[in-house]
Amino acid sequence: MALIEFDQKKERDIVLIGRVTLDFNPNEINRTLDKVETFSMYLGGSPGNIAVGVNRLGKKVGFIGCVSDDQFGDFVLNYFESRGIDTSQMVRAKNGERIGLTFTEIKSPTESSILMYRDQVADLEIAPEDIDEEYIAGSKILLISGVALSKSPSREACLLALQYAKKHGTKVIFDADYRPYSWRSDKDICVYYSLVARFADVIIGSRDEIDLIEGLPVLANDVPDHEIAEKYIENGAKIVIIKHGKKGSIGYTADKHAYKVESYHIKLLKSFGGGDAYASAFIYGLLEGWSVPDSLQHATAHAAMVVASHSCSNAMQTAEQIEAFMQEHKEEKVITELDWEAKL
User: β-strands 61-67, 111-117: how paired?
Assistant: First the structure.
């Protein structure tokens, strides 16, 4: 029996709220950004990438967001619409706000960084009046991205969407998606992140992000992962995934199981984009009614495939492609059940 059950009468599988931006990835890789001459442009932003990933896996996806009223905004809407992602809940910025831009740097397969332009961005202009209660009610899942909580009116729009989701039995996934330059202070992060996490059915974040939610000091190793997971499970969460970078991640479940997730061995091209692929395949597994370990295995397989590719959004895979990858790597054991209190 699946840990999370969805109302199959709901029209959409998932609606996401948050940022959608543009990624400019260097065509000349293994060098610093100041030495790059040309870039390829892709749709970007964590919620945008996840939307594309879940859609690529065959699920019905909608997006709530704000884009610039210019050619780049056209690009985003056309990209979504050409793939069957519903844009009926997307609006245009009214006061000249521009779409966020991300320039990525691939210095080596293991050394990547991002340079983001986020001043007066369109995605943070989504407002409460743009949130349709019936649309939320007609979706199995609402995914809220942490960056969307960083400023008004976007944060109020997210909180209203959360309220509608809880009212109508729509499951809530909170993807912490922390970007430090988006926030005024750590206190703000703690307030708004913890508010959404308290009502989420699934929480996904790195240990550093979880510490921010909890208001813990950096590297608060004296508070073990399982204690934090227990707190959210007591609040009603069914699954808490805490990531530890190269060490892997642990998925904690409400039925008191803990699963260590490791990476497949592949030839890296870049070190970003894997988290969005991970989330999209994990969500797909939940919607399919799979067990948590099976969903986690598909998630880490999808992540491996995307970090071996130049783009993020364009590199999202089909269910058949992920399954074929897992068959090719069937000798690798990437999911291990742990004792509840075990550490990585």
Answer: unpaired
